[in-house]
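#structure-requests
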Amino acid sequence: MMKDKIINKAKEMFLRLGFKSITMDDIACEMCISKKTIYKYFSNKDILIEESIQAVHKEIRATLNKIAEENFNAIEENFEVKRMFREMFKSAESSPIYQLKKHYPEIYDKVLSMQVSVCEDCFRQNITKGIREGLYRENLDIDNYVKFYYTLIFNINENTMLEKDAHELEVKALEYHIRAMATLAGIIELEKHLKNPII
């Protein structure tokens, strides 16, 4: 379907080159279609950005579900999720969340709650799993640990312009998060993964 093709191409270009710098002309030109065709489906660029972000979210959710189905322990799972994000955004020059907040604050506000709920679910499930596996301490205040971690991650992404720098900081935040919760067995597992950095 043409609408989906436009969303996919726009998503790829927005992530790679930035939401601000890509115009409807650029997308039309890249797809060898007229700008009129794009406007038939999207009355303005903001709507196209919003739908592109929703497509990214769908992708993220599907990948998270796939990772959850694998037989990783809680700490492996965290590193796998980080790897998945790295892979998804490897072509991005600058952090997508930083760009949105800076140039499209209204869209950013709309997608934020969607992002927070996906992340909260993912973090909560991971902590519960880690406790069950004896990798995280029992009696953790799960709600607050979820809040601490996503506050860290969102602050990094909102305030770090370059995706590469955001990635490096996120890996440090992940280590910080796991160390705060880990049992001795968890620390041993963590150290194992820190020896194989996420490229």
